[in-house]
Amino acid sequence: MESTIKQYENIRKKMLAYQFVNFMISWDSNTEAPEGCFPLRSRQVGILSEETYKLQTAPETVKIIDELYLRRDELDDEVLKHEITESKEGLDKLKKVPIDEYIDYMSLLAESESIWAKAKRGNDYEIFRPTLEKIVDFNRKYIKYVETDKLKGYDILLDEYEKGMTIQEYDQFFEKIKTELVPFVLKIIDSNLEINDEFNKLHYPKSEQKEFLEYIVKVLDFDLNKGVLKESEHPFTSGFGTTDVRITNHYYEDNFTSAIFSGIHELGHALYEQQVSPDLDYTLSGGGGSMALHESQSRFYENIIGRSLEFWKIHFPKLKGIFKKQLRGVKVTDFYKLINKVEATLIRTEADELTYPIHIMIRYDLEKALFNNELEVKDLPKAWNAKYKEYLGLDVPSAKEGVLQDIHWAGGSFGYFPTYALGSAYSAQIYKVMNKDFKVLKSLETGTTKEINLWLKEHLHFYGSSKPPKELFKICVGEKFNPKHYINYLIKKYSKIYNIK
Amino acid sequence: MESTIKQYENIRKKMLAYQFVNFMISWDSNTEAPEGCFPLRSRQVGILSEETYKLQTAPETVKIIDELYLRRDELDDEVLKHEITESKEGLDKLKKVPIDEYIDYMSLLAESESIWAKAKRGNDYEIFRPTLEKIVDFNRKYIKYVETDKLKGYDILLDEYEKGMTIQEYDQFFEKIKTELVPFVLKIIDSNLEINDEFNKLHYPKSEQKEFLEYIVKVLDFDLNKGVLKESEHPFTSGFGTTDVRITNHYYEDNFTSAIFSGIHELGHALYEQQVSPDLDYTLSGGGGSMALHESQSRFYENIIGRSLEFWKIHFPKLKGIFKKQLRGVKVTDFYKLINKVEATLIRTEADELTYPIHIMIRYDLEKALFNNELEVKDLPKAWNAKYKEYLGLDVPSAKEGVLQDIHWAGGSFGYFPTYALGSAYSAQIYKVMNKDFKVLKSLETGTTKEINLWLKEHLHFYGSSKPPKELFKICVGEKFNPKHYINYLIKKYSKIYNIK
Fold first, then answer.
1. In chain A, which residue's Cα lies nearest the Cα of B25?
2. pLDDT of B415 strictly over 80
3. Nearest to A447 by CA among A256, A276, A298, A318
4. What is the ipTM of this complex?
5. Angle at which helices A291-299 and A469-477 pack, to 10 degrees?
6. What is the pLDDT of residues A319-359, one digit of tens each?
7. Shortest Cα distance, chain B CAs vs residue A410, angstroms
8. In what order do the strands lie in the sheet with B237-240?
9. Is B286 left (phi over 0), alpha (psi -120 to 50) or beta?
10. What is the DSSP string of A336-378?
11. Is the pLDDT assigned to residue A234 strictly greater than 90?
């Protein structure tokens, strides 16, 4: 047993090193790499994936994991036990996928995002369509390869992004969005709340926006000695272990609140990564517990904290100090209304807190249709546009404002979107529980989020991904997921802002 | 045979992928990585180096290379033939060094640079001496292990950095520097040329320096679609293949010519990499042909082109347009004199074009003495200072401005320095030959270096490292290396600037 564990630890070391390599390459691809490098780069990525795949599926690896899995009840180390269970399940799946197809798919993904970017820039779905078709085809085949009696179809993809979540559960969740939130949103949109937001139409220089973001980094207590702040086309968080956590942001000079909230959002993800137990840096159980748990943290900081009146009562003076001219005479309540303005809009990433889950519901519906074989890639733009009309009453004028807006599908991520809405819902439930321990918004008067960070560290972050996500959530809030907290939170907050009785 | 070649190609693919990984990691470490990430990162780097070493020395790899080497005359593919010969020689050498000594040396090198940095910061040679002694000891033993009838002593180290170069040849070269250049330099230094360089003491904002560098990138026709321009502490060039070539620069607001010339220097390296035949991207024969050949290109663009009057007649107006205030009333001839000002100085990296090879000659003499066992590490500072007195008339006031100034020896690089001077000398010979085909400096009137780039592509760059460096040089200039062209070029140029008859 001892020696088998040692052997496993040796393999784990290599797997971690390959994870590090993946982090390096994807960070570089998304921030720095020149466009012309991708054909050659994708070859290298293909070869490296093959090496990783070989290591993961080597007979020696399989033997060791099988052995440890069989004797898992004898393992004292809970982290190891969880890791072995995960690896065993992963391996069982991986073994079912033909290596050539897997490698081809990896090479495809190495350049698909740059093709998507080109299509989006050119506002031309047809540039991206053939690539997307290949990606969807692979995923359909993948489903067939790995399906079991218990798990079939789109459930397989959902489970990959959020272990334990199924169509059944998501359907229940989105049903509540559909029946309770959508009518409420329509009521809000119909109401005629007057918002003084002339100041939002002014010019806000990038350099000064960056200055404010550096201030926000301090407010949220993100450690730059173990992190990086950078620009990229699309904001994201990436990293390796607790000592190298990176976020990017994008600044719009004609829309100054965008970078503030995408910044706080990514910082939420980043704090989660930085607050994982450093012991887990040497295991495969570091990082956030799941996609939805990760998103619950980014959304928590972005919306529950970042879009609260209490937060801005403290920090609006700093913002006014930086943008003296633009914000002259603007009251904090004007700003609060602006950042919580509800509108039916086309772009998910710019959606307000309230309409956001509707954008996700649309993507969920489309993905479900794609993998139920009720929809083909070529018909995706039409289906997309129809949904936006149905739920948000909008006409989609172009592909780049429609089906091409998100990078996810270009990266092969199907089953990912629903975790965003789930994360938002999680955050409301976490907020409710946190408030039993201390007055969350009142704690902001200290000028930082340190008390909140600490609570989240102790109740969630510290565990990394060393347990199944549903278990982590239960440890954090003491009960199962219940979407009613989310609906209640939203209706309470927005009824107040919009004076709805 | 066919199948052995296929096997070799498979190994080569993996080696290339590991080269790519090294490029990614070292680029990131030098430009982006947060300080706190290094302990965890160095573990990953260690694991990845071990994997690379295992691949290189695996019995299967050795067998395939041995087999192809034995039958190398049957190989039609000249690139492959060259690669196999190189690999065979490298492996044979590696096999002669006891593995435990090699590993000890690698661990020594893993910390030697930080010990050197500490010694330099503290200006105390004694801090570094014991480490340097171990490094020199290993290299003396290494020489014994790998020496053959043909190659002995310091020649072995010289050959590692510049294949085919020997003490005999370097001695002839440096003898010419000693007897012809040194007296000329002393004459120049004694002359009292008046240089109006008050403008050089003004403040030049970084953002405007960057704007000029972006202009220079266009002048030199560096393809940013296959390249990156970035900042770092020390300028360097790095890349993978022809489609991802990256340079960094460092801007000093109180010394505006520094970034211009380090920029042009690195662009010279970068153009070489970008103009290699794209076919070689899939082999181990891409990149520049040798250290000296690489340096010949960076020095060619930096000095022969970049410090010519003809270049600045075209581009000085642009510089004046950017620095209107600072360069008001400054004539192009003033600027030309400034950038060609000759001074005896202590620091190699800040030396001018004319005194530069003297700094290298000093290091060459000292290295030769060390490996001829005529000098011991403890006596190095004394010997260093005596040489600076002898050749440049300077008293060395401190170790950090003397023997501790360069990082190279701390990294175990003995035999590397001479390639810098050789590269400069190569560039003058290339320049002479190029002028037979077209008027090089006159071609600058077009506003770009495109004609020069094309000539260098056809005569040198295109071949990458697919042939031995001496062969590449001969293809380029049609004859053997002859240092007289370098001496003639320098004496002609500086006699004119300094009015020396």
1. A24
2. yes
3. A318
4. 0.91
5. 40
6. 999 999 999 999 999 999 999 999 999 999 889 999 999 99
7. 22
8. B227-231, B244-249, B237-240
9. beta
10. HHHHT-----S-GGG--TTTHHHHHHHHHHHHHHHHTTS--GG
11. no
Count contacts between A and B (CB, < 8 Å).
107
Mean pLDDT of the B259-271 span: 98
The rounded Cα A277 to chain-centroid distance in angstroms is 21
Q: If DSSP codes are grouped into helix, strand and coil, which group holds residue A106?
A: helix
Q: Write down the pLDDT at residue A359.
A: 98
The string of DSSP letters for B214-279 reads HHHHHHTT--GGGEEEEE-SS--EEEETTTEEEEEE---TT-HHHHHHHHHHHHHHHHHHHTS-GG
DSSP H helices in B97-220: 99-122, 125-146, 154-161, 167-176, 182-190, 206-219
Backbone angles phi, psi at A480, to 5 degrees: -75, 165
**B425 to each of A28, B64, B178, B453, B487, how far by Cα in Å?**
37, 39, 14, 19, 8
What is the gyration radius of the CA atoms in chain B, in angstroms?
A: 23
With contact defined as beta carbons under 8 Å apart, do A73 and A84 qualify?
Answer: no
Q: Which residues contact A389 (CB under 8 A, 6 or more apart)?
A: A395, A396
Residues of B in contact with A47 (CB under 8 A): 13-14, 16-17
3-state per-residue secondary structure call for A7-49: HHHHHHHHHHHHHHHHHHHHHHHHHCCCHHHHHHHHHHHHHHH
Sort B218 into a burial class: Cβ within 10 Å, 0-12 / 13-18 / 19+: exposed
B16/A226 Cβ within 8 A: no
- Residue of B40, B48, B224 lying closest to A243 (CB–CB): B40
What residues contact A48, with CB distance under 8 A and at least 6 apart? A18, A21, A22, A25, B17, B20, B21
Tokens of B253: 């607001």
Quick one: closest CA in A to B49, which residue? A17
How far does A207 lie from chain B, in Å, by closest CA? 13
A446 vs A313: CA distance, rounded Å: 12
Is A266 catalytic? The answer is yes
| C-alpha to C-alpha distance for B239 and B228, rounded to whole angstroms | 9
Distance CA B308, CA B493 (A): 9
